[in-house]
Predict the 3D structure of the following.
Amino acid sequence: MTKDECKQVVLDIIADIAPDEDLSNVKPDVRLRDQLQLDSMDFLDIVMELRKRHGIEVPEAEYMQLASLDSCAEYLTPKFNALAAKG
Amino acid sequence: MKSYQPSRIVITGVGLTAPNGNSLPEFRRNLLDGVAGVERIDVRYMGQQLAGVCHYDPLKYQKKKEVRVGTRAGSIAIYCAREALADSKVAFDSMAKDRVGIYIGCTEHGNVETENEVFNISKFNYDTKFWSHYHNPRTVANNPAGETSLNLGITGPAYTIGAACAAGNLGLIHASQMLRLGEVDFAICGGVSESIHTFGIFAGFKSQNALATHEDPKKASRPFDKARNGIVISEGGCLYTLERLEDALARGAKIYGEIAGYHVNSDASDYVLPNPVRQAECVQFALRRAGLAASDIHIVNTHATATPLGDIQECEAIRSVFGTGCPDTHINNTKSFIGHAMGAAGALELAGNLPSFDDLTVHASINVDELDPACAIPGLVLNHPRQVAKVDTILNNSFGMLGINSTLIVRRFVP
């Protein structure tokens, strides 16, 4: 998985949990909370959907890694690829 | 010494969603035209069942995210509250939001979300790390009132009242008390139900042999009919705006009617079987509080749910109070159109009758092909609406499990 593909995975999740938001111009380097109406429960939703849909676990101490699309890609892409390598 | 005179409380707005209408005019028209609102739905684990389903547009007053995060009961409450406020024509934006109370009756709350979560984790080998973080805010008993306060920015007291199927009346009664105590200046109150979304309610009534079946869904809810065989479960909601009379008059509000009297009591005799002696006492106490005789009541809206025993018990209670000496008392039933809307029932059924003050028409109890002789009480309005000479008073009965009884009397407003 590329980092761009990883960003799309996160955007797909956000599209479901924040259906009123326009995601066409999300800036990858800006904190998601600074450009979208997302609260703490929404971030728990992102964590839950990563777990449900992709088997990815994000420990609570690492939630801050999900702050922006760029940081999501940095943090999650290796996890996706490690999971894929396991088969 | 001056004796205490409690404030007069009046109804100034109505917002509702019922299986056969999403506004009072639409609901009323269908009650007069004999249009029922029961259909088949798929219930988890149970397949096709009969139910009363509401078809309002949740996105009229909620964002998509609010609908996703919230509950069906919360959504129904928000719709009804917003509709009632609009109907009341109160200047809501400039109101002191900390002086507004929200009091919503519920039969039950939390079953829907708990069942959904158990079903959800069943797909993950019952691993509770897949249990939703929304479970607790969705299942707390105050959820529908809390969601309404969030949606409207109301910072006064907002809570629910658990009173089984008497809850809709209890919402109005409690709001009247809070207004009289001066706890709030404006109340949004009534009842809501999301019960068709929980298989447990269906399975529970089925286990009690109290779930209606019929090949024609619209004929399934048939209180007082000899062939009745149980309850049609429905969702719905009806919320009112209530105000002290002086406040309503000061702003030139339309007044639907005045809370004339009420009573709440308990059977203390059985978990589910009604007690006609206590029901009759409840009606008598409400009449006394209203300063009315039984013969002064022009419409009695029954609670009857179409269970074989329950209808007979209520008719026994009504017979003991109204007997044969009340020629101007007309008796009807709204569940025959919409099924049993549980915590919303009392509030919805009152609303369906309020327009009688204006059109002097009593809506019927439909689906009575052969009247059960045990339910043959004087004054029953069967199958076709009845034009009458006078409607100045409406008495609304709502009873619930664990033996809670409520009677609410509304009278035509006369300054």
